[in-house]
Amino acid sequence: MTTTDHSMFDMHPRPIGTAILRGWCKRCPNCGAGPMMSGYLSVREHCPVCMEELHHHHSDDGPAYLTVLIVAFLASPLVLWAHLVFRPDPLVLASVFTIGCIGLALYLLPRLKGVMVALQWARRMHGFGSGS
């Protein structure tokens, strides 16, 4: 083995649960103090507090797919329940659930992106393992 192969065994494990919780809160997965996002969905190049590099992430469409899956999973039975119990006008039902689904999607999307970036950081994927 070369010296670079030994360095892979010297890395300390990164706690996945803590990283995911910090990602959900849109915080740096390393320190938990610095903000991960510089905009609504823009991940910072590095944490302003601990200087951990965050630009290695490859989240792509994953957060969007998860958001659609979760919103549809929650909304589908609720629409059926509301229709059977309250019998609202179809326009009212569609309006209420459209607003609710859009609001939930806008809430979940940046948090799920933070979770995906934090998970990649914790598992040392896509270049996150080259540092500490």
TrEMBL record:
For whether the record's keyword set contains Membrane, the answer is yes
Give one Pfam family.
Answer: DUF983
- Keyword field contains Membrane: yes
Source taxon at top rank: Bacteria
The record, for InterPro entries, names:
DUF983 (IPR009325)
Question: Where do the TM regions start and end?
Answer: 64-84, 90-109
Keywords of the record:
Membrane, Transmembrane, Transmembrane helix
- What protein am I looking at? DUF983 domain-containing protein
Per the UniProt entry, what species is this protein from, by scientific name?
Rhodovulum strictum
